[in-house]
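Q: Sequence in, structure out?
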Amino acid sequence: MTARPPRPDDDPRAVLRSLGLRPRRALSQSFLTDRGRLARIAEAAVPDPAWSVVEIGPGTGALTAELARRAARVLGVEADPHLAAAGATAFADRPNVEIRCADARDLDFARLDLPRPLAVTGNIPYHLTGLLLRATLEADPRPDRVVFLVQLEVADRLVAGPGCRDYGALTVLCAAAWTARKLLRVPAGAFHPPPKVDSAVVLFEPRPEPICPPRLRAAFRRVVLAAFGHRRQTLRNALRHGGLSPDELAGLDNLPGVRLDRRPEQHPVEAFVAVAAALDPSTANPPVGRTA
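A: Exactly. Output:
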């Protein structure tokens, strides 16, 4: 008797066995097997049946199946050619699902033929977390919401506030245009194979008006990375070590909301935007503390 092909509703371990595949460490493959948590991720990503979803790394299709029950359209972007081919076959009878073999880092949101509103979700590879967060949250046009499963440590950093130990460059860069909220914790035992650390689901929603305007994005990023590259120093010394010239630093004296004698982690997002605006040559007004 011929064994039936694997279905997305099967346990990911069973799907891998039936395909003769093993999780690939090079791709940081670790598959969520907990059905309840898969459903909660899908519910967060698809608040209404009119939504479309891009899933990064559909893998064996466990989350894809949950999304397909809720969303108008689902596009799965899978880097593993074997899993991409298996997924395309498994969802061939689902007209609202497309599985594409591609690298999510190369995804061009402007060229996606998907109706809005649009969500992006996925259990993203740990080693690509920073790159995929930046590619997704800085996309133009930006998604209408993002729901990512990430390492717990990263989740704690994403939702931290000023003055907290976990507050850093990643927090500030994301918070400039998005709000972040931790939805649920996912223990390592809920995955196959289990990673060494727990994970968490984070919901990102776009701010109606970004704190950092698009024209300041490059300067803002430069300031934030310079500041938190030396986070235990004062903001003045951190920016100096980060490459700001004496003239640039002099222009920041008495800048409202900015205390150069305090550490970077004690400043809210708005302070870094103010510094970026003071350093940006296209700013309409000369920075406070610098003569016209």
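Residues 217-228 form the longest helix (12 residues).
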